[in-house]
Amino acid sequence: MFLLHGICSFLKGEFFTPSLSREYPAIFHINIDKNFRGFSVGSRLIEKYLNFLKEEKVCGVHCVTISEEAKTFFTKAGFKLLFKIKSTFLRFRLYRDFTCYIFGRKL
């Protein structure tokens, strides 16, 4: 089942993403437990990471999410939506399609 869905998604072009390495060479992934959201933990982590990247003269950073809640969070943190694509890859597991969002921020 997993392999079949993977092949179908690949043939539909659902794994295609644009190359971001030139303008947004850094990437990060962040997960904050639901019990700790709303206490600025994520914002402070991002701020620390962005400051580090600036010190290292990195020109941009990007992140990927499938969370609808995260769209608002990243926008408030100064990220811009760079790319989105609908995916059916995990339909058999999530029982729904989802959208993959890629956000970026210039430094």
Brief overview:
The protein is an alpha+beta fold and about 110 residues long. The protein is about 35% helix and about 25% strand. The chain has helices at about 1-10, 40-55, 70-75, 90-95; strands at about 25, 60-65, 80-85, 100-105.
Q: How would you describe the overall organization of this protein?
A:
With 107 residues, the protein is α+β, with helices and mostly antiparallel strands. The chain has one domain (2-106): 3-Layer(aba) Sandwich (Aminopeptidase). Helix content is 36%, strand content 23%. The protein has helices spanning 2-11, 41-55, 68-76, 91-94, and strands spanning 26-27, 60-65, 80-87, 98-106. Strands 1-2-4-3 form a four-stranded mixed beta sheet, with helices on one face. β1 (26-27), α2 and β2 form a beta-alpha-beta unit. The radius of gyration is 16 Å and the shape is globular. It starts with a helix and ends with a strand. The mean pLDDT is 88.
Q: What's the quaternary structure here?
A: single chain
Provide the domain count. 1
The neighbouring-strand order within the major sheet is 1-2-4-3
Q: Which value, in Å, is the CA radius of gyration?
A: 16 Å
First-to-last CA distance: 42 Å
Output the CATH class name. Alpha Beta
Shape field: globular
Q: H/E order of the elements?
A: HEHEHEHE
CATH architecture type: 3-Layer(aba) Sandwich
Number of helices: 4
